[in-house]
What we know:
Blueprint (H helix, E strand, L loop, with lengths): L7 E10 L3 E6 L2 E6 L6 E9 L6 E10 L27 H18 L8 H4 L3 E3 L12 E6 L5 E4 L6 E3 L8 H4 L13 E7 L2 E6 L6 E6 L2 E6 L10 H13 L6 E5 L5 H10 L4 E6 L2 H10 L6 E5 L2 H7 L7 E4 L8 H8 L5 E6 L2 H13 L2 E10 L8 E8 L2
Parallel strand pairs: 3-5, 6-19, 14-15, 14-17, 15-16, 17-18
Antiparallel strand pairs: 1-2, 1-4, 2-3, 4-5, 7-8, 7-10, 8-9, 10-11, 12-13, 18-20, 19-20
Helix pairs in contact: 1-9, 4-5, 7-8
Amino acid sequence: MTLVVGDVVELELERPAHGGYCVGRVGGQVVFARHGVPGERARVEITEIGSGNRFVRGDVREVLLPSPDRIRPACPHAGPGKCGGCDWQHVTLVRQRAMKAEIIREQMLRIGHLDPQDPLLADVDVQACGDDRDGFGYRTRMDFVADARGRLGLRAARSHDIIALQQCPLAVNAINESEAWHQPWRAGATIRLAASRDGVTVAPDAADAPTVHEQVGDLTYEVAADGFWQVHRNAAKAFTELAHAMLQPRPGEFLLDLYGGVGLFACALAEHVGAGGRLMVVESDRRAGRLARRNLRRFANAEVIVERVDRWLRERMLSRVDLVIVDPPRAGAGKEVMAEVLRLRPRALLYVSCDPASLARDIAFARDLGYLPSRLQAIDAFPQTSHIESFALLIPSS
């Protein structure tokens, strides 16, 4: 069957797919449909066709047989042709998390080549991020773009169109109450609103963003307002607690933190390796590296290297480490980095991932190098969206 953009087809949505889609088939052609729920029958408008029919994407326009997990979105801007910030506001939070677990399992089987009988896959679940129970009011950082009239908005899914907003239900109250909503902005400008211990900081794209302070338990971190920091209000605490539980650092151990940002994990685990241990953070972003040095300055056994991880590993002088944290961008660490790290034979490597596909690929690389996943845990740090934060603990296979 040959489809063209604009066609409307009727199909059954079979399962969730990575990226916020559901998979359906029509005439033997696989269709990736947004705004559906697995198990539904729906009419889908074809919106995009890849070269050589490599993929077909569409939007659900009419639900013929709804899922019991379908709900009315809380935001009037959620849905086909509207704001692209949320993939799954039309799905109950319980089902969202079940779908994310299913996507992780599928990626681990298809790309990671794990055994279907591996108990690790049966135990995959997606936990709430701290005390988050409804999946709203959690984002402490929002990147907006100004429309032609200077209003803050977000882009429509897979589009340059800007949807003007008056607030966002995913944002914390402080952001929604910011005066930035009432200011006229230059058309096309990007504006970050960052809520921290210091209040709400407005960082337009034309200005150098200031440094803000983030509190995680007893630790205070300096972070660039326009720099990377976990957006969920509970994520930093939940992630560092999980890292400690999975790695179980011991006094005197050497911890290598790759793609370490401003030192979130290194600072949180410093007391557990103690004064007799060693901490090393490698981060390519110069400003983040400078801030990591400030955040770690009270630990005499800590060192921050500002360099690309792959380049530094090729030139490293290390002979061994005990523990490694790898927290790469969405593209993952890759084969070269995994090989260089695992040649150091750490007793455990914690891989923190925002993309289950690149995580699964790198787990496959690790297996070839003698390391297997012993624990896999996901945290729902991005409710109402298809984004997934996963933690995989890799240990020597023998």
